[in-house]
UniProtKB/TrEMBL annotation:
Keyword terms of this UniProt record: Acetylation, ATP-binding, Ligase, Nucleotide-binding, Transcription, Transcription regulation
Record flagged with keyword Transmembrane: no
Domain of life from the UniProt record: Bacteria
Source organism of this protein record: Thermus aquaticus (strain ATCC BAA-2747 / Y51MC23)
MF terms (GO), sorted A to Z: acetate-CoA ligase activity
Protein name as annotated: acetate--CoA ligase
Top-level EC class as recorded in UniProt: ligase
Lineage: Bacteria, Thermotogati, Deinococcota, Deinococci, Thermales
Range of the intact protein held here: 196 to 844 of 844
Length: 649
């Protein structure tokens, strides 16, 4: 069952008897079917929450203008009356034929019977009213800023669709994109959507072998590729890698030659295509997960539900007001870029800033200046970016109103830094498979730093033990979903169904408090087993981050004499920390950790200048573990370029 769920867990690392959990899944599902919808969220005064958890009220100006004034009631309605809740919101979008049913619990299908098209809603719906409004701001790796209006994006993508059609691309065909974040990628995605074709964006920097495998497994009919991209100000050529990947394959390629406008000119030669109305669950794109736990999985999202789910989240969770500029630091070729770099802002008729290079390049102050100069009010970024900014000290004023954080746990210390230096932090938990946030702390709920928040409308979540039994508040266990929102996947590459017996196993470790707030503790399969205790990586890392000398930290468990021993990788805040200070700092960090988490047995500390990351910015702990154990790290196609090994000293 776990295999079918796409969860690859080496036997020796099974936490909490994962196998028994798998067996118990269907039983729980039966039980869960009879569970009442969760009680509306009580919002007791902070005093009742316990001494160590801080409860922070959002600032008054955010509270007053919050969209979701009565969150508990809205949440309840989303589950009990999906027709009303989601149906009303979906009415605001354009449908070529109305749906017959908003949500079918049995098949988990959304907006069945409806015909629509994501490109129709991203572009055509806004014309002619927003013809002259800027839809995208693009800043490429050379520092060139360009503005693209709704009219321009519409015309470019409609004509590019004509070019693709002439190349034989039709509804359901997959088109691979190997393009950096920028207007070319955006119009390629929208052109595919128009035709009912399926875009499959591949991360820049993938080597020839992985690229080839993705093209083959994804059954691409066409490749649109750039001959290079910018990373930290440096140009990385890709033509040779693409050509090597293609050798012997009969796959046509449309090239985007960097530094030229050839691709856009070629696009303009096409005959404009109308957006093809397709069924709600018709595939819009295929996208791979980050590969944190193993080989990246290919996830398929559809037009209808996805459109409603991401638009709802940007409007109501991220609270984007009409006319405001939105920016996500995520690359377009990650789910966060798909959902919130491109689609949701356009569905809402907003303006999105797309950035090719890393946000902190050439410096954090350039990042702050950019946000202010371009009038960005809502930012969606990742803990990695926030930790990097924090390492450089105080921020300068940005004009931001809200800062979303997704991808990894947001440690309380980093939450606080964000609150003090940028704007109100909005942690949100989701996955490539879910398409849009599933857990978060929407305004007007108070935040509990360290807790991501509560299930969002449409989502039901539980924490279960290895047997699949629902655990009482405060206990650590596996995070499972009983229901997911409209933006959830329509399938996995390979045809598997991630739902088993009514349960969706997220692969994450969590606990829920008395008020229904969830804390994500790390990955289930990375749980650290210290004697009888079970610790999530995020718990240990968050405790370390409260030490003033810690900029970044990764915790892993390594097999020891009895059970596991804790191994820490620490990036000190001071660059080039003198060798002779390291043993002393290591001792201080251990003592610091014990003060926070109690005695943890033998601990080993390594200092390093950088941690291995996925291209989406997540710490790749399994690589650190493999390095120390001297074993094969497995699939590292998700690894970001430029990692040179974790153990400096
Ligand atoms: P793979 O599935 O290939 O191992 P991945 O799970 O990292 O990779 P994504 O879909 O990009 O791929 O990431 C989803 C995961 O990211 C979640 O399951 C969770 O572990 C982590 N995550 C996302 N948001 C948060 C958050 N706000 N807090 C804690 N963890 C988060
Ligand atoms: Mg995953």
């Amino acid at each position: 069952v776990l295999g079918a769920l796409g969860v690859v867990v080496p036997a020796r690392r099974f936490p909490f008897a994962f196998s028994r959990l798998a067996r118990a899944l269907s039983e729980v599902a039966q039980v869960s079917a009879h569970l009442p919808a969760p009680e509306p969220l009580p919002l007791p005064p902070p005093a009742e929450v316990g001494p160590q958890v801080e409860v922070v009220e959002p600032p008054r100006e955010l509270l007053e203008k919050a969209n979701l004034q009565d969150f508990p009631a809205l949440y309840r309605q989303s589950l009990e009356d999906p027709e009303g809740f989601w149906g009303d919101f979906a009415q605001g979008l354009l449908w070529a034929r109305p749906w017959e049913r908003v949500y079918d619990a049995e098949s988990r299908a959304w907006f069945q019977g409806g015909l629509t098209n994501a490109a129709l809603n991203a572009l055509d719906r806004h014309l002619p009213e927003r013809a002259q409004q800027v839809a995208l701001l693009t800043l490429d790796g050379e520092g060139t800023l360009e503005k693209w209006t709704y009219r321009e994006l519409h015309d470019l993508s409609a004509r590019l669709a004509g070019v693709l059609k002439d190349l034989g691309v039709g509804p359901g065909d997959r088109v691979a994109l190997y393009l950096p974040t920028g207007v070319e990628a955006a119009i390629a995605m929208l052109a595919c959507a128009r035709l009912g074709a399926v875009h499959m964006a591949l991360p820049m920097g993938l080597g020839p072998e992985v690229l080839r495998q993705r093209l083959l497994k994804g059954e691409a009919r066409l490749l649109i590729a750039a001959d290079g991209y910018y990373l930290r100000g440096r140009f990385a050529p890709t033509r040779a890698a693409v050509e090597a990947a293609l050798s012997g394959l009969d796959l046509p390629v449309l090239w985007h030659r960097r530094g030229t406008t050839e691709f856009l000119e070629r696009a303009m030669e096409g005959k404009p295509q109308e957006a093809l109305p397709v069924p709600s669950s018709h595939p819009l794109f295929l996208l791979h997960t980050s590969g944190s736990t193993g080989t990246p999985k290919g996830v398929v999202h559809g037009h209808g539900g996805y459109m409603v789910g991401v638009a709802w989240a940007l409007r109501h969770l991220f609270d984007l007001k009409p006319g405001e500029v939105f920016h996500t630091t995520a690359d377009l070729f990650w789910i966060v870029g798909h959902s919130f770099g491109l689609y949701a802002p356009l569905f809402l008729g907003g303006t999105s800033l797309l950035l090719e290079d890393r946000p902190d390049h050439p410096s954090p102050s350039a990042f702050y200046q950019r946000l202010e100069r371009l009038g960005v009010r809502v930012l969606l970024t990742s803990p990695t970016v926030l930790r990097t900014l924090r390492r450089h000290g105080e921020a300068r004023p940005t004009g931001l109103r809200l800062v979303g954080s997704v991808g990894e746990a947001l440690a309380p210390e980093v939450w606080r830094w964000t609150r003090e230096n940028l704007a109100w932090p909005l942690d949100n938990w989701w996955q490539t498979e879910l398409g849009a946030p599933a857990l978060a702390t929407p305004l007007p709920l108070p935040a509990k730093p360290g807790f991501v928040g509560v299930p969002l409308p449409g989502v039901e979540a539980r924490v279960v033990d290895g047997e699949g039994r629902i655990l009482p508040p405060g206990e650590r266990g596996h995070l499972v979903l009983l229901r997911a929102g409209p933006a959830q996947l329509v399938g996995l590459l390979g045809g598997e169904n991630p739902w088993r017996g009514g349960l969706y196993l997220t692969g994450d470790l969590a606990l829920m408090d008395e008020e229904g707030y969830f804390r994500i503790l790390g990955r289930s399969e990375e749980v650290i087993k210290l004697g009888e205790a079970r610790l999530g990586t995020a718990e240990v890392e968050a405790a370390l981050l409260t030490h003033p000398q810690v900029a970044e930290a990764a915790a892993i468990g390594l097999p020891g004499e009895e059970g596991e021993r804790l191994v820490l990788f620490v990036v000190p805040r001071t660059k080039d920390l003198p060798e002779e200070l390291k043993p002393l700092l290591a001792e201080k960090l251990k003592a610091h950790l014990f003060r926070h988490l109690g005695p943890l047995g033998p601990v080993e500390v390594f200092f390093t200048e950088s941690l291995p990351r996925t291209r989406s910015g997540k710490i790749l702990r399994r690589l650190l573990k493999a390095e120390l154990l001297g074993v094969d790290p497995g699939d590292t196609s998700g690894l970001e370029d430029g990692y040179g090994g974790g153990k400096d000293s």
